[in-house]
Write a structure and sequence with these properties.
heterodimer, A: alpha+beta, 2 domains, 4-stranded mixed β-sheet, 3-stranded antiparallel β-sheet, 14 helices, 17% strand, globular, B: Rossmann fold
Amino acid sequence: MGSVIEINPFTRVEGHGSAKLYLDGSHVERVELCLTESPRLFESLLIGRSYAEVPDIICRICSLCSTVHKVTALLAVEDAFGTKVSEVTGLTRELIAQGGLIQSHALHLYCLLLPDLFKVRGVAELALAAPELLKTGLAVKRVGNLIQETVGGRLIHPVNITLGGLGQRISRDKLLHMRDELEAILPACRDACRLFSAPPVFPQLPVPICLAVGPAAPPLSGEQFRMTDGRSFPVNAYRDSISESVLPYSNAKYAQVLGHEPTVGALSRLNLRSGLGQEASRIFDSVKEEIVGRDIRGNNVAQAVELYQAVENSLSLIDRLLEIGREGAGNVEVAPKSGRGTAACEAPRGVLIHSYAFDDAGICTEADVITPTSLNQGALSRDLLALARGMEGADAASMVDALERLIRCYDPCISCSVHLIHI
Amino acid sequence: MIRPKLAIAGLTACSGCQLTLLNCEEELPEIVRGFELAYFPMAQSSNDPEAVFDVAIVEGAVSTKGDLATLFRLRNSSRLLVAFGTCALHGGVAAMNNRLNTREELIRGVYGEGTGSFESFPPSPFKNFVSVDFSITGCPPEKHDLIALLGALLAGTLPPTQCYPVCTECRSRENLCLLLEKNQLCLGPIIQGGCNARCPATGIVCEGCRGPVREANVAQELELLLERGFDKEEIKRRMSRFTPEWDYGQRH
């Protein structure tokens, strides 16, 4: 006899989603992943708006990743107009993106995932079960936010990073303050890799086909995409390789890359990219067997490695900015012209693509945004089905628990995913 | 001590207002001691949807039947309803084209022709559907406004409401006036203050993320910007970024 198990809503994730498992007896026939976030239709809202407004509006897609959305939009608009920004501008954007990554990974690991490790419902019970650990996690998260606020002018939806440059350069005092605060959280970030190293105990899942922006960290943007099957393709021709379709039960489009369901995010980056600093490499080596060639259960420890890496990267970016001081070129003029611009960055949750077309006056005529969670949607559905089938016969409650835990391995950002593209 | 029961939820939004609570890193342990987080799907599992609450703090605009059902449920099950953030208060970014396009046009632009119908209506503020007891504005909201609300709730009251434009704080910070001295399209004179003029302080114009200040002199701002050579359509486009409904003739 047919029955349905429903997980509604997903909890301890960003945004609104649910899933249905269709069973025939104890056999799991199929899984429907429904990203039910109400669509805000950003790509349509941008049509007819000036290029100057695009980055300010589009960063509102998502609060957790507003910084990297803003940076990617700035890069895409500048790509359309052939604008080349100064070294200080480039470094400052990288620094704020690292701050965004620290904030986002720390939020996920310590506030949303850690309750699973202590078998409590959430952040409030965690404050009783593991008060010191929660405080440590919040201290790490706070430093990510300190960078975002100091560099961006506010915590969410930063304003100080602009087309062609910066509202204000970051002063020496502020850089030094951020450096002190970053150094203070290095030990906690080192511990995070131990804390989150054990993968959840479920049946084996399919090995993912990883997709990331190449070639190396720390530049968060790049010209090429790379995959673990050895293939690569250029960012500005992404449309030839990424296809999307609309599913009847989800408000996020379903993406395929060269015919595969890709996996993006921390796990994919560490499987594909080099460029870890000395200490980050040592930490990575100690947990490598949980990450390299592994399924999505390795994503959370990969996030922990990246947390350390982001702190190291931020410190070297700050050192370089201190070295440049007040020297070096400042802002450049942005002159609109007709054309298309595309940029791809590594958002905390993986590959993020923005592409815009403008007319002679710089009015936006086309907008296209592909987010990590929409790229991961196919792999997440596939893994939910694989896990549910691997647990056939288990009671509904433990199945729901395991599936929710799997969803948190992916760390989806559903607000982001429900904003897709022209077909 | 009886801990007030809180519901924290989001409708059509970016989760930024709920994130603002989680961004209170230093205060969070004290907040969860003082309140019972009875419903907070973004940061807590096994929430009881049938529970009743002392206060529901809800972000986002209302744009689907599902949003409306959640809003009615939280209104009916809570003593106080707080509209949290600009989307809840004014419609926010998702509502910017409410006066320009139909929902169908916008949906076709994103999902393509003939992709079935999405259940979606123009994003609207809470006040169009329910009574609201208190509001916190901002995209994103300021942490100190949230902390002030939570502190007041523990004392059994609500914080005083603020009513002054962005320019008040901007002038007292002695920022360069971007509107008068740099001839930029700054919305500071008609936008609710309380953000300590964050954006003008870094040399960026006020984009209006906190929505209209009460008794805004809208007509005067419009005249000033027109005099300075800005195009009327551009001004309206900029003003509608967070608030689609303006009375352009309003004078005080």
